[in-house]
Amino acid sequence: MGKGSEEKQSRRSPSAWKGVEFQIENLIPGTIIVAESIFLYSPVKCKCFTIPPEYPDAVIVVVFTAVCYATGLISAYLSRALLDWISERGPRAIVFYWFAHHDVGPLVEKAQKQKNDKFDTDYTREISKRWLPVIGKWNAVYRWALRQNEKEEVGRRRSQGRVVRNLFFPLVLLGVIIANSIDANVLLLSVILIGMVILSLLLYAYAEYVNFAEAYDILDALSENDNAKSKE
């Protein structure tokens, strides 16, 4: 009985940890957004953040945690829709081209040799949609590498990438706080916000590159092992 229960717990632990990890990915940015909002609109400026003294501490903690989680969940979906849409139209290809130690052409040929229908469909669609073919090629190769690899390390890297993506709105609000602290005019506020948006895009594109590099390195090592076994 003891050994069996331990084995079941060990089997459940990875999925259980993924569930906890998912909740943290939403809770951290939500907490930062709520804290930044309170800082910007303090009780001196806005009475909506004033907490009545008769509420128990436990109720305040539960409500605050729920608000932070809901805020983080909504911001995560909005960040994904916005940053993924922008990244796949240029920033991802720029970062991959700059940091990758491979040209995209040989990577496309390697993926095509595997006769993967999903890659062929994705590749054709990307080439037809993007204003530069190289952008579509990098998008297709990136998705191909992630689809072919389900290693735990790649999963951790992708989780880190989601955390970086979810920090988009906290960074934008940080720009508002900086502009507010220096009494910036509308022009300077716009420059600061644009800078924060560009910083978020570059950080997320680099996080995507880290995901791709980890997945491709594992695929490359597996193919080398297969070649060595075939020669034997």
Could you give a short description of this structure?
With 232 residues, the protein is mainly alpha-helical. The protein has nine helices and no strands. α1 crosses α2, α3 packs across α9 and α7 packs antiparallel against α9.
Largest beta-sheet details: none
Mean pLDDT: 80
Low-confidence stretches: 5-12, 224-229
Total of DSSP H or I helical runs spanning 4+ residues: 9
Give the distance, in angstroms, between the N- and C-terminal Cα atoms. Answer: 45 Å
What proportion strand? under 5%
- DSSP summary, beta strand count: 0
Q: What is the H-and-E element order?
A: HHHHHHHHH
Classify the secondary structure makeup into a structural class. Answer: mainly alpha
Q: Can you tell me the overall shape?
A: globular
Please tell me how large the radius of gyration is.
23 Å
Structure overview:
The protein has 232 residues and is an all-alpha fold. The protein has a domain at 16-87 and 149-231. The chain has nine helices and no strands. It has helices spanning 2-40, 57-87, 91-99, 104-113, 117-129, 133-147, 152-166, 168-181, 186-231. The longest helix has 46 residues, at 186-231. The radius of gyration is 23 Å and the shape is globular. Residues 5-12 and 224-229 have low confidence and may be disordered.
